[in-house]
Automatic annotation (TrEMBL):
The keyword Secreted does not apply. GO terms for molecular function: channel activity. PANTHER family: PEROXISOMAL MEMBRANE PROTEIN 2, PXMP2 MPV17 (PTHR11266), PROTEIN MPV17 (PTHR11266:SF17). Its main location: membrane. It comes from Brassicogethes aeneus (Rape pollen beetle). Keywords: Membrane, Transmembrane, Transmembrane helix. InterPro entries: Mpv17_PMP22. It comes from the Eukaryota. This is Mitochondrial inner membrane protein Mpv17. GO terms for cellular component: membrane; mitochondrion. It is a multi-pass membrane protein. It is found in: Membrane. It holds the Pfam family Mpv17_PMP22.
Length: 193
């Protein structure tokens, strides 16, 4: 049994060395779409699953989140590969860049992409940002920094996106639910005026 597992991990590692962005895009699309299905069924407790909504998240994951994550993590790793700084300093710098450059762009892209795919106009998308973006980012800063410290200390680069997406499955349940929640009534009043 362990030989099979070793072969699977070796195959994964070899494929990721040759096609990292493609692999990460596929697995990210699947994970983001799966997270949305779980959010609909178990968080929102919907009787009828909106598969089109989940397909939208698959597209956002495969066409934006996966490629963006792959490129960002690869460049981050290569930039610090020859660093003369201590490991602690490098990890801290990576976490800060991850949380204050990568995360805000990622969350903005997902919020914008989902609302654009739903056919919302510019004012509605702006309202969605005002209502949801800051709350998602604040919660991001509660959940992710510790996980990123572990990642940058112990996880090889070829597994960075897989590691992050393993936790992101649960995080994405929250994000897909939050993005699809009704907008705060007070913010709707601003648009109607």
């Amino acid at each position: 049994m362990s030989t099979i597992v070793q072969k699977v991990f070796l195959s994964y590692k070899n494929f990721s060395k040759r096609h990292l962005t493609v692999l990460n895009s596929i697995q990210t699309g699947i994970l983001l779409g799966s997270s949305d299905l779980v959010a609909q069924k178990f968080v929102e407790k919907r009787e009828n699953i909106d598969f089109y909504r989940s397909l939208q998240f698959i597209g956002i994951g495969a066409l934006f989140v996966g490629p963006y994550s792959s490129v960002f993590f690869k460049k981050l790793t290569l930039f610090y590969e020859t660093s003369k700084h201590s490991k602690k300093s490098v990890v801290l710098q990576k976490v800060l860049l991850d949380q204050f450059v990568f995360a805000p762009i990622l969350v903005a892209g997902v919020v914008f992409g989902k609302n654009a795919l739903q056919g919302k106009n510019r004012d509605e998308i702006r309202l969605e940002f005002q209502d949801k973006y800051l709350e998602i980012i604040k919660n991001n800063y509660v959940v992710w920094p510790f996980l990123k410290i572990v990642k940058y200390n112990y996880v090889p680069m070829y597994y960075h996106v897989l590691y992050s997406q393993s936790f992101a499955f649960f995080w994405n349940i929250y994000v897909t639910w939050k993005i699809n929640c009704d907008i705060n009534e007070e913010n709707w009043k601003k648009v109607r005026l």
